[in-house]
């Protein structure tokens, strides 16, 4: 992904790539997201967008940061002392378990592939109330 989408744009003056950075919340002007607060090298920094703010932190961290920023189910946010910027009850809901994921191992010496290449399986539930994954 990085090589295909980001690397060709690295010379653009409007793109900065930070590694080892943690987005903690969105910054708002009214109900418009204007930037992000980010923890970098133990320091909290704020970055402001000229045009738009795109939050793409994955299936777990995107709703987490939205809710920490005041976007989500209003009653739940209030219960945690988070001021509500936008009541959106669907944020943080409908997350579904993924039944498969891939792992790759490198052998120290060449080994023949056995079977389907899937010698072990792990079934995991993100919610103990579920009867099965």
UniProtKB/TrEMBL annotation:
It comes from Rhizobium mongolense. Keywords: FAD, Flavoprotein. This is Choline dehydrogenase-like flavoprotein. Belongs to the GMC oxidoreductase family. Residues 58-72 form the Glucose-methanol-choline oxidoreductase N-terminal domain. It holds the Pfam family GMC_oxred_N. It comes from the Bacteria. Its cofactor is FAD. GO terms for molecular function: flavin adenine dinucleotide binding; oxidoreductase activity, acting on CH-OH group of donors. InterPro entries: FAD/NAD-bd_sf, GMC_OxRdtase, GMC_OxRdtase_N. The keyword Nucleus does not apply.
